[in-house]
Amino acid sequence: METSILNLDHRTDPATKQILQNVVKRKGKFDRFKLRHLIVVWATLAVTSIYLIYLYLTIGKTYSYSFAAMFSAFVKNPINFYLLTLSVGLYGFMNLLKEKREKAEKEYHALRCEIVDRSKDLWKKEDEWKNRHLVFEMMKKEYDINLFHENK
Questions:
Q1: Residues above pLDDT 90, as percent of the chain
Q2: What is the 3-state secondary structure (H, E, C) of the chain?
Q3: CA angle (139, 109, 94) in 5-degree steps
Q4: What is the pLDDT of residue 4?
């Protein structure tokens, strides 16, 4: 468990600490998928751009007089097959990571909204209820998790 969550002392009970730990874990998972997706998006754009420039310089410029000559030159060079496969593969991987990122985001926001909705149940005692803003501020400062309201 995170040390800042363990140091909450009397403000939260162990069950609430575990819920807070789970939301931190899901936020970390979401952030990892978000970063991976961004890296693959840029890699896809870079590889595809380089491939299109390569095609223009080696085939488009040289064989622009005939489509048949362009197609023949494209098929003869095996590098075209590998670069095309790499570009399409990166595009597919980018879409797969996007789906995983969206799923992780839904899980994270569902748990975060559940904490917001159930805050009266999680901080039942009067002194806990009055000090819950300290827990919320710590979560915002330490982990960038907003528990004050449901909106992103």
A1: 74
A2: CCHHHHCCHHHCCHHHHHHHHHHHHHHHHHHHHHHHHHHHHHHHHHHHHHHHHHHHHHHHCCCCCCHHHHHHHHHHCHHHHHHHHHHHHHHHHHHHHHHHHHHHHHHHHHHHHHHHHCHHHHCCCHHHHHHHHHHHHHHHHHHCCCCCCCCC
A3: 115
A4: 87
Identify which of 77, 82, 72, 71 has the alpha carbon closest to the alpha carbon of residue 47.
Answer: 82
Integer Cα distance of 150 and 152 in angstroms: 6
Give the number of other CB atoms < 10 A from CB of residue 28: 13
Note the pLDDT tens digit of each residue in 105-116.
999 999 999 999
Q: What's the CA gap between 46 and 10, in Å, rounded?
A: 52
Tokens 């978000």 correspond to what residue?
34
Would you say 128 and 12 are in contact if contact means Cβ atoms under 8 Å apart?
yes
